[in-house]
Design goal:
Layout (H helix, E strand, L loop, with lengths): L2 H5 L1 H6 L1 H17 L2 H15 L4 H50 L2 H6 L2 H19 L1 H24 L1 H7 L3 H38 L1 H6 L3 H53 L5 H13 L1 H28 L19 E9 L9 E9 L3 E6 L5 H9 L6 E6 L2 E2 L5 H6 L1 E4 L10 H6 L7 H10 L3 H4 L19 H13 L5 E5 L7 H14 L4 E5 L11 E6 L2 E6 L1 H7 L2 H17 L1
Parallel strand pairs: 3-8, 3-9, 6-7, 7-8
Antiparallel strand pairs: 1-2, 1-4, 4-5, 9-10
GO cellular component, one term: plasma membrane
Membrane topology: Multi-pass membrane protein
Protein name: Multidrug ABC transporter ATP-binding protein
Length: 582
């Protein structure tokens, strides 16, 4: 049960001073709370014996008031320390979780659902933070404070009465062990269901246009209703066990009260304790009610925190598929790109996605990559991003294996525009500046001009300051592509990778963009994969892929002379263009 505290040992060591102060003051406050009942008991005994005076009564009142004020300030400090630690660990865990996600490769996100990751970053981290705040409070109150109260009852009143009153308490320990196991298992299932619900909501919101277009609103509502019903059932299963905690404790504490009161009256009549002792004892007995409840809360919160921490650790302990080597090689610039007999297979694939691919590209050259859908064009480009572990063969940049170059250095050379344009819920300006944070308006406009987007700015409500909406929903497909292109152009990267990044623009706009790239990227390396051959006619080298194998290679004219797939595709596109013009 307490493994969660052991696994959070790094945090307690880091915040040792905070927790030492907080726990010492918490214990001190508990000890001071024992004194007012004893003073009240003494006062009652003096009243019964008739020895009470105005001076002694004033003394008792002043002492109790001073103690209450002292307890007030001590309580304020320990609550600030303990619950401040709860907020701190939540911030640290969330930052660590997010940083870990940023270091993971695409294969990790293929294996883990977005909704489940969100559940771990919210509900699970919140449950762990409660463990180091409220959990530490219940741990101290259910152990140290309970022990102190029992010792006070024994030493200050009567051991016989104390032993009789605590007879029902072992029943609580037995019940808590049983309830704790059930809470752990059921809470894990409830959190998994919450992750499934998150996934469903994300899919429905992002695909709402498709859902409406196919009139599937009622089906989607039914699917969401079913999954929320599953979340409800699993959380109710947790609540059913949780509901047993308080009645069980109340039953045992009630039995303690009956025993304490009955046996206490008997001892008063036998003159073994005074009436003031009995009053103090019953006040102490009332003080152990919270520690009893704290035992239940402790079991509950530790089991929830343990289950949540297991889920968080399951994510953060996953190692990235691609990591920097211990002693990387320093490369100043990518003067040459080489692939020698590269064979690659995705982790989830059963066949090779690239097979014996060899090519070389000098700085300043342009490589065109074409082929049928699914032929491996994107896979070939992603090899340079080093998102997956390299397969067999060698990928060299400036003569250095890509595995020996740090990922930060490698990615600093790249400007990448993927097939699916990802825009953030910010302005057009901020999306473009994502490629170069310190870019001024002149540099932004230069990138926009290169992407042939300047004429579209006038159609936007606020120009560069227009909010694009989530994932660029307020822009057309062609506009999103050109904003993505502007973002890549603004940093003037050494290697520009365009993965079918011109598919949503018309032929005339494409021609302008290609011409801008040729004129402004002299001396820079460019790789372009496309289905439209007009985009790579100017390339220094063109490769045709089929099922991950290079079947044709050469310049535009050389490939036309081969009369292969490239020539066939070129002729077909020329006919389509002529018909479109007519």
């Amino acid at each position: 049960m307490f493994s969660v505290l052991k696994n959070l040992g790094w945090f307690f060591r880091r915040e040792k001073r905070r927790y030492v102060i907080g726990l010492v003051l918490l214990i001190a406050a508990g000890v001071l709370e024992l004194l007012p009942p004893r003073l009240l008991g003494n006062a009652i005994d003096e009243i019964v014996s008739g020895s009470i005076t105005a001076v002694s009564l004033t003394k008792y009142i002043v002492m109790i008031v001073v103690m209450l004020l002292t307890i007030y300030w001590i309580t304020y400090i320990w609550m600030h320390k303990l619950f401040g630690g709860s907020n701190l660990v939540e911030r640290l865990l969330r930052s660590r979780f997010m940083n870990h996600l940023m270091s993971m490769t695409p294969s990790f996100f293929e294996r883990n659902r977005t909704g489940d990751l969100m559940a771990r970053a919210t509900n699970d981290i919140r449950a762990v933070s409660a463990t180091v705040g409220f959990g530490m409070l219940t741990l101290v109150d259910s152990t140290i404070f309970l022990s102190v109260v029992l010792l006070a009852m024994g030493f200050l009143v009567s051991w016989k009465l104390t032993l009789a009153a605590v007879l029902p308490l072992p029943l609580i320990a037995v019940a808590m062990i049983f309830y704790g196991r059930a809470i752990h298992d059921r809470y894990s299932l409830a959190q998994d269901a919450f992750g499934d619900m998150n996934d469903q909501v994300l899919e429905s919101v992002s695909g709402v246009r498709v859902i409406r277009a196919y009139v599937q609103e009622r089906l989607d509502e039914k699917r969401f209703s079913d999954i929320t019903e599953d979340v409800y059932r699993k959380n109710m299963a947790v609540a059913r066990v949780d509901a047993f905690f308080e009645p069980t404790i109340r039953l045992c504490v009630g039995m303690s009260y009956i025993i304490g009161l009955t046996y206490g009256i008997y001892l008063v009549f036998r003159n073994q304790i005074t009436l003031g002792d009995l009053v103090s004892f019953n006040m102490y007995l009332g003080m152990i009610v919270w520690p009893m409840f704290a035992i239940g809360e402790l079991i509950n919160i530790m089991q929830r925190g343990g289950a949540s921490l297991e889920r968080i650790d399951d994510t953060t302990n996953t190692k990235p598929d691609v990591m920097d080597v211990a002693h990387p090689t320093e490369v100043t610039s990518p003067t040459r790109i080489e692939m020698n007999q590269v064979t690659f297979r995705y982790p989830t694939s059963t066949v090779d996605n690239l097979s014996n691919v060899s090519l070389s590209l000098s700085q300043g050259e342009t490589l065109g990559i074409v082929g049928r859908t699914g032929s491996g064009k994107s896979t070939l480009l992603k090899q340079l991003l080093h998102e997956y572990p390299t397969g067999s063969g060698d990928i060299l940049i400036s003569g250095v294996p890509i595995e020996h170059i740090t990922l930060d250095r490698l990615h600093s050379w790249m400007g990448y525009v993927p097939q699916e344009q990802i825009l953030f819920s910010k302005t057009v300006r901020q999306n473009i500046q994502f490629g170069y944070e310190d870019a001024n308006d002149d540099r932004i406009m230069e990138a926009i001009t290169t992407a042939a987007f300047q004429s579209d700015l006038g159609t936007l409500s606020d120009g560069l300051d227009t909010l694009v909406g989530e994932r660029g929903v307020s822009l057309s497909g062609g506009q999103k592509q050109r904003v993505s292109l502007s973002r890549a152009f603004i940093s003037n990267p050494d290697i520009l990778i365009l993965d079918d990044a011109l598919s949503a623009v018309d032929a005339r706009t494409e021609a302008r963009i290609i011409e801008n790239i040729r004129s402004q990227r002299a001396g820079k390396t460019t790789l372009i994969s496309t289905h439209r051959l007009s985009a790579i006619e100017h390339a220094d080298q063109i490769v045709v892929l089929d099922n991950g194998v290079i079947t044709e290679r050469g310049t535009h004219q050389e490939l036309l002379d081969l009369n292969g797939w490239y020539r066939e595709q070129y002729d077909r596109q020329q006919v389509e263009n002529n018909l479109s013009n007519d």
